[in-house]
Amino acid sequence: MIGKFLIFSLLWSLLGNPFLALLVLLIVIYILDRSFVGVLPSISKPWKRRRNAARLRQQIALNTNDVASKFELARIWIESKKYHQALELLLEIQSRYEDSADYWNARGTAEVHTSHLQDGEQHLLKALDINPRVQYGEPYLHLAAAFKERDVNKALHYLQQFQEIQSSSSEGYYLTGLMYRMLGRKDEATAAFNQSIAVYRSLPKYRKRSERKWAVRSLFRKLIG
Questions:
Q1: 86 vs 114: CA distance, rounded Å
Q2: Residue 100 sits in the same domain as residue 127
Q3: pTM of the model
Q4: What was the pLDDT predicted at 193?
Q5: Residues 72, 12: Cα–Cα separation, whole Å
Q6: CA distance 137 to 151
């Protein structure tokens, strides 16, 4: 904190304007975070998603049988939380992806977010049956979130299944901690955040770059309680 204040003071004296100095400081912090940590959200990612979605819609308009583009567009819409649009596309292309774990993961995700919980659970489990490690166990997190207010025991069961897959991942324990917080289990959440930090510290150097942001987020969540 003191270091940031000193840098801000230096920039103020150099630029002669406190607002400009603050802007430059924030830009520097953002660049450093995106380069070495990754806690702050990407400014460019939403724009890239919109650009890719526009490109895919154009391709589909030219060729309505382009199922690959429809699948890619559906996944972009899921990332953008446009679950209804995604589900419409996924239903269109089911016959081409019957044996795809990624397809059933995407469809189940869209369904649990559009009040089709029973179908969503069935299809997320189908994705895991085809490939138990599909998207690094992501279906378990969607299932745990979907049942957190309807069936806590089932939510915890799916959460434990996810932990088995992500036992050596700082990200996995961070997401587990978030889920425990959503369930109101603060002690378990704190333990998960602690484990996230511990896992990060034990990782070899080449893996720490990709996991660092999760350890930092875990530390922050732990501090705010």
A1: 10
A2: yes
A3: 0.75
A4: 93
A5: 47
A6: 20
Structurally, how many domains does the chain consist of?
3
181 and 204, same domain (yes or no):
yes
User: At 50, which CATH number?
Assistant: 1.25.40.10
Instruction: Give kind and range of the element (H or E) at residue 32.
Output: helix 18-36
Cα–Cα distances (Å) from 159 to 78, 125, 191, in that order, read 21, 13, 14
Give the whole-angstrom CA distance, residue 11 versus residue 179. Answer: 41
3-state secondary structure string across 75-105:
HHHHHCCCHHHHHHHHHHCHHHCCCCHHHHH
> Is the domain of 71 the same as that of 150?
yes
The boundaries of the domain holding residue 25 are 1-36
pLDDT of residue 213: 84
Residue 168 is predicted with a pLDDT of 80
Same domain for 139 and 80: yes
CA atoms within 13 A on the CB side of 17: 5
pLDDT at 191: 93
For the chain (225 residues), the mean pLDDT of every run of 10, in chain order, is 59 68 69 63 82 96 96 96 96 96 97 95 97 91 86 86 83 85 88 92 82 87 81
87/107 same-domain check: yes
Q: What is the DSSP letter of 38?
A: -
